[in-house]
Amino acid sequence: MNNKPKRPDRCAQTNPIIWLILIAVIAAVALSAGLIFLRRESSKVPVKAARPHRTDAIAAKVKKMSTEEKVGQLFVVTPDQLTGLTTVTAGDTTRDRVKQYQPGGLIYFDDNLKDPAQTKKLLADTKQIYADLGLPTPFLAVDEEGGEVARVAHNRAFGVQNVGDMRDVGATGDPAKATAVGNTLGTYLSDLGFNLDFAPDADVLTNPANKIVARRSFGTDAELVKQMSAAEAKALSAHGVIPCLKHFPGHGATTGDTHAGTAATDKTLDQLMQAELVPFNNVNAYAPMIMAGHIATPSITGDDTPACLSKQMVTDVLRGRLNYKGVVITDSLQMGAVTQSTDSGQAAVAAIEAGCDLLLMPKDFPAARSAVLTAVQNGTISEKRLNASVTRILKCKAKLNKTAGLK
């Protein structure tokens, strides 16, 4: 045990006044630093205030557009429908017609596409015409599924691989094969200047007698078709090419050819939900566009109205039951299933009323555009309804690049 007397604690001997002074100094320094920090922070401009959300920018763009400009955005037509000629170049005539009608996009076929150099110039010049006129970036579209539907690959001058029938791709049961298809298509289409491909075919082949999509479909298994079409769509998107799933509500259960006339399925909605509609359900994450076909569904609608002209099918089923938020485009409005019972103007208005956003190739484009414009002006199609479609279209175009549609 240590019995030495304890030394006095030096801290205890310190004058309390000194402690008070030290505490005051520390507090003053801390307060000063805090005020400087707050002043610096308050001088910063919030990021969100400096960079408005893209949705707000699109809304502002739509608000500034004239009714004529908005109506123009609803149409995707061939360049020949604009010029009245087989179009292989985009010059003064194309410029004049684009300025007059302001279509939202153009679709190109075999006669428009001669070789890589000509096609690249045609598409680049067309895109520049839109830019010079201050119009939103156009959809530059093509039907390039592979196999029997290949506007580019069928032409040997392009020297690209035809990816073959999706029936054979689906038979592998491997979605990676569909990804490879999307990568191949996306590579050569984007290189040429296309930004929209009407592919993949998401039809489920439930009717063995169907000859229209037999080779174009990934197969008979609805879940596999969904996996395959999703894989191809994602790959196309990765190359800057917008994919378009088709043909809602499913061509695989039919036997008729909508190019010539009516094609119908007698299935009920519940039955379609078990197969044909599976590839179109819950696809917002990877399908910015869906093509509504001309398939009639009398067990659902009670008549032979083509799906793309039926509000019950587009609005109630596709947008309602399947919760689809993207752009809906009609199949070609020149096809017999439409033209046998209605004219171009009536079909165009009916498709918008049904819930479609884009009108593909009406037989008489000027008449169809005039009919939609008149319908908006007289209130048959409300301004709110028109704005909803134009907003979806510009959002889709905004996926192409940061400024698409927002000039």
Task: Describe the protein's topology.
Elements: H1 10-13, H2 16-43, H3 47-50, H4 54-64, H5 67-73, E1 75-77, H6 79-83, H7 92-101, E2 105-108, H8 116-132, E3 139-142, E4 144-146, E5 149-150, H9 166-171, H10 175-192, E6 196-197, H11 222-238, E7 242-243, E8 245-248, H12 269-274, E9 289-292, H13 298-301, H14 311-321, E10 327-330, H15 336-339, H16 344-354, E11 359-360, H17 365-377, H18 383-398
Parallel strand pairs: 1-2, 1-11, 2-3, 3-6, 6-7, 8-9, 9-10
Antiparallel strand pairs: 4-5
CATH superfamily: Glycoside hydrolase, family 3, N-terminal domain
- The tally of helices reads 18
Amino-to-carboxy terminus distance: 90 Å
Poorly predicted ranges: 1-14, 33-51, 403-407
Order the strands across the largest sheet as they lie in space. 7-6-3-2-1-11
CATH architectural type? Alpha-Beta Barrel
The rough form would be described as: globular
SSE run: HHHHHEHHEHEEEHHEHEEHEHHEHHEHH
Average pLDDT score: 89
Integer tally of domains: 1
CATH class: Alpha Beta
Structural class: alpha/beta
- Measured as a percent range, the helix fraction is 40-55%
Main sheet summary:
6 strands, parallel
Number of strands: 11
Radius of gyration: 30 Å
Strand content: 5-15%
CATH-assigned fold name: TIM Barrel
